[in-house]
Amino acid sequence: MAACGLDFGTSNTTLGIPATGRPALLPLEGSHRTVPSAIFFSPGHEAVIGRAAMEAYVEGTPGRLMRSLKSVLGSSLIEETTPVGRERIRFRDVIARYLALVKARAEDAAGTGLDTVVHGRPVHFVDGDEAGDRKAEEALREIAQSVGFRHVTFQYEPIAAALDYEQSVRGEEIALIADIGGGTSDFSIVRLSPERHGRPDRAGDILANDGVRIGGTDFDRQLSLGAVMPLLGLGSPMKRADLAVPNAYFHDLATWSSINRLYNAKTRREIDEVLRDGARPDLIARLRTVVEAERGHSLAMAVEGAKIGASDSGEARVDLDWVEARLAAPVDRAALVAHTETLARRIAERVDRCLAQAGLARNAIDALFLTGGSTGLPHVRASLIAAVPGARVVDGDTFGSVGVGLTIEAAQLARS
After folding, report:
1. I want to staple 40 with a disulfide (CB 3.0 to 4.6 A). Which of 28, 53, 145, 189 is the partner?
2. Last residue of a domain, one of 313, 337, 361
């Protein structure tokens, strides 16, 4: 049996094992070292994960898709059940099913069993709630133990990224580590050097930790609410004066973890009533089409793709011709910024809190190390660089740095 580092992310998951030289992230889906944090249940409750799960959904295979599984940790959903076919399954059991499949794939790739895990975790599962943080970590510990990990420890994800970055530093420096992922944005200020690398106790080198529950899925949601949902009736009036169409349907449809709440007869009846009483039935009819076809995840994927497209090339569109002929929502970089600039600002504010916690001025930071998929958003990246303008900017492995760092710690744990 062996130790591993497990980065169970909101969007993607990696798992690494100690190896000669650099820690090795294992292939978890074909040759891919990452596997999307998604699971698809067929009517017989058989489960597939990752890219295969999303492909099954997109291809119209009967069943139930769940994505961004980590987002239920730290929320009341973790103790609730969700319908899968004719039964209801606890969300914690859904996560366990996913992680069990990841563990099995990793053991096949490694050729050995895995009984010890260094689990990554955000600095805060829940903003401003220490009891909620502890409860979320304990739930994740119990899930890890239920899938066969006998020994479970945790490390903050930005600290893990710092351990990865430290492998390349040539002298002592103070680094701000920014891990902007799918569900949270996490920061650490750490003193690093070749001499310190590998020391068993690094507590004195960690100068500050902070984070906020904002990540890529929040940018998806705000972009969807701003650019797409008005085409489905968000903000449109009812026939009765001074009333607008209820917005709960649109918020659920724009939120990965809430989409499946809409797929029931009661909601469809309510939407039919809104269609009847709304002043813009043409728009509500589009909403009804999405809900009746259970295509909310397809819509969310298209919004995510438009976010990435607008970030990379400056222009994109959410194609909705499956809802109505020639219907689309154009998204350019200016629109992306307009709909999500508040999120970028709230993320950057955490840098100031970290600096205050460490008792450091902005110019004391030697390097800004960036990891996590949402660091690819230009306005997020710009806001972080502006927060420590004198720091050298270092781009880490977007989806691998945290997993590598957790594996480094797993190797140290195995030697102790």
Report:
1. 53
2. 337
Do 41 and 168 share a domain, yes or no? yes
Burial class (CB in 10 A: 0-12, 13-18, 19+), 11: buried
Q: Which residue pairs from 307-310 have beta carbons closer than 8 angstroms and sit at least 24 positions apart in sequence?
A: 307/216, 307/219, 307/220, 307/223, 307/331, 307/336, 307/377, 308/376, 310/335, 310/336
Neighbour-count burial for 273-300, b at 16+ CB within 10 Å, e otherwise: ebbeebbbbebbbbbbebbeebbbbbbb
Does 21 score more than 70 pLDDT? no
* pLDDT over 70 at 98, yes or no: yes
pLDDT at 79: 86
Average pLDDT over residues 118-142: 93
CA gap 365, 334 in Å, rounded: 30
Q: Is residue 45 part of a domain?
A: yes
Distance from the first to the final alpha carbon of the chain: 15
CA-CA distance, 388 to 365, in Å (whole number)? 7
- CA gap 134, 152 in Å, rounded: 15
12/160 same-domain check: yes
The 8-class DSSP code of residue 244 comes to B
| Averaged pLDDT, 202-217 | 95
Q: What is the tens place of the pLDDT at every residue in 229-257?
A: 999 999 999 998 789 999 999 999 999 88
Asked if 117 and 239 sit in the same domain, the reply is no
The residue type at 161:
A
Say whether pLDDT at 140 is over 80: yes
Percent of the chain whose predicted confidence (pLDDT) is above 70: 99
Rounded Cα distance, 290 and 18, in Å: 46
16 and 157 both lie in a single domain: yes
**How confident is the model over 352-369, as pLDDT tens digits?**
999 999 999 999 999 999
Q: Which residues are CB-contacts of 250 (< 8 A; sequence separation ≥ 6)? A: 225, 229, 232, 233, 234, 287
Helix axis angle for 378-387 and 333-358, nearest 10°, is 30
Domain span holding position 274: 217-337
Same domain? 406 vs 320: no
